[in-house]
Write a structure and sequence with these properties.
About 25% of the residues lie in helices and about 35% in strands. The longest helix is centred in the first third of the chain and has 15 residues. The protein is globular, with a radius of gyration of 24 Å.
Length: about 475
């Protein structure tokens, strides 16, 4: 029996879910769908009955991905780092090559990390059908039984009936509303889920025939890869030679052995705020509230508040998303245009499309709570046992005040142990390191002073996480 290896694709940026989803902290790492787990964790749990997963993720997200997977299980996952974005066809090629090293006959089941599936039993039944068919060398995709005429999804035309496997006749781009309504009425069209099952070697053979540069570039990138802590870091120059193509464009639309399994398992790609509203719990007025919200004479709204109370009066079908550094208000019918805001932020070189005010690091996180031209105040949290790099700054001094836990501070040749209400001053140019030696999180307030306060004013001498 061939090994069935889940492949989780975690490289997306989720721009249509701004301001909650940011480039350096995208939607798959967030808890959007409720419960205690992020979307990445929910995806991993969905396939935990299979082999340990191969996860392909953006290099910038590596520590968060590893931490979230470790929180679920001690079962090891192979984490392959993409040095730059090259779409799904190369990402799956990397995973397929890694899978064949584990088992030349391996079957891989490919799932994006940012989907929601509510009916696990139906999902597993569809996966079993796809796996059986993949044994013969076919390339399987899942077609979602459409619940409405949705213009935000691509479609698959197939002759599937009663949940049975069928050949794919056509892949269709996102349609206009009139075409989408005709597709749904015909009963022959399904939403394109972006989930796949096939033998790893069958996919590589298809690449060899249809997109050989992707296969050869990924082979070279993996052949020159380096192991880095929990990660496989592929060669950037070789991987950059891959064309930027989705698996649909590179393989599925052209291969002759593509089959589809229909699935009706409460699926959503949570690709927009309206999609999140659809799957969220709602009150009697069809409002979906996340966080502290008050509403008067309002219906059909989605309101997400990270911290503060949000009150709405007389609003219908509106999205309100409040974070520490940005507020989005838009009509629910216009949510696809959120990416235009993200594009404008990029053009203006504003940081809000990249980072939240609270920035996550492998050792913990920091929140820039106040700043001016020559000072900045941060709230820093360090995990138990974690340590920042041994570093120094050319342009700023720092003052640390411990407000919770215990801090071990290396300052030049001295080592200090600080507890609550104690502080230390770090002069410009002094080597220093902060460690949490305790069993509870360490929290401190950092006041930076100087003529330049950018994050790139860090000279690292030693770093447990091997950052540049």
């Amino acid at each position: 029996m061939s090994t069935i290896i889940p492949v989780i694709l975690s490289g997306g940026s989720g721009t249509r879910l701004w301001p909650l989803s940011r480039k350096h902290y995208p939607k798959q790492l967030l808890n959007l769908a409720g419960g205690q787990y992020t979307m990445l964790q929910q995806t991993a749990l969905r396939v935990q009955h299979l082999s340990a997963p191969i996860v392909v993720c953006n290099e910038d997200h590596r520590f968060m991905v590893a931490e979230q997977l470790r929180a679920l299980s001690e079962q090891p996952a192979t984490i392959i780092l993409e040095p730059l974005a090259r779409n799904t066809a190369p990402a799956i090629a990397l995973a397929a090559l890694a899978a064949t090293e584990q088992d030349p006959e391996a079957i891989i089941a490919v799932f994006p990390a940012d989907h929601v599936i509510n009916n696990q039993a139906v999902f597993e039944q569809a996966l079993e059908k796809a796996t059986e068919a993949a044994c013969s060398g076919d390339l399987l995709t899942f077609g979602i039984v459409p619940s409405e005429a949705e213009t935000g999804y691509g479609y698959i035309k197939a002759q599937a009936q009663n949940g049975e496997l069928s050949a794919v006749e056509q892949f269709v781009e996102k349609p206009c509303l009139q075409d989408a309504e005709a597709y749904v009425q015909s009963g022959q069209y399904f939403w394109n889920s972006g989930m796949f099952v096939f033998k790893a070697q069958a996919y590589l053979d298809a690449l060899e025939a249809l997109a050989p540069t992707i296969k050869s570039s990924c082979q070279a990138a993996l052949a020159q890869a380096n192991s880095d802590l929990d990660f496989i870091r592929v060669d950037k120059a070789a991987f950059a030679q891959c064309p930027d193509l989705s698996i649909d464009y590179a393989v599925m639309e052209h291969a002759s052995n593509v089959k589809m399994v229909p699935m009706d398992a409460g699926w959503s790609d949570v690709g927009s705020w309206s999609a999140l509203w659809q799957i969220a719990d709602k009150d009697s007025d069809d409002n979906a509230f996340i966080g502290e919200v008050m509403a008067i004479d309002s219906s059909g709204n989605l309101v997400h508040s990270a911290e503060k109370l949000v009150a709405i009066i007389g609003l219908d079908n509106v999205v309100v998303v409040d974070t520490k550094d940005a507020l989005l208000v838009c009509d629910k019918s216009q949510v696809q245009r959120v990416k235009e805001i993200v594009a404008e932020l990029k053009q203006q070189s504003r940081p809000e499309h990249l980072l939240h005010r609270e920035v996550h690091r492998p050792w913990g996180c920091y929140d820039a709570i106040d700043s001016d031209e020559r000072y900045q105040v941060k709230r820093i949290k360090v995990k138990p046992g974690a340590s920042l790099s041994l570093q120094m700054h050319h342009h700023r001094s720092e003052h640390w005040v411990v407000v919770k836990g215990t801090a071990k501070v290396q300052l030049g040749e001295k080592t200090l142990l600080l507890t609550e209400n104690q502080s230390v001053y770090i002069p410009i140019g002094e080597k220093h390191r902060l460690t949490n030696p305790g069993k509870i999180p360490l929290e401190l307030i950092e006041v930076q002073s100087g003529d330049y306060l950018g994050e790139d004013d860090i000279v690292r001498f030693e770093d447990l996480y091997r950052r540049d």
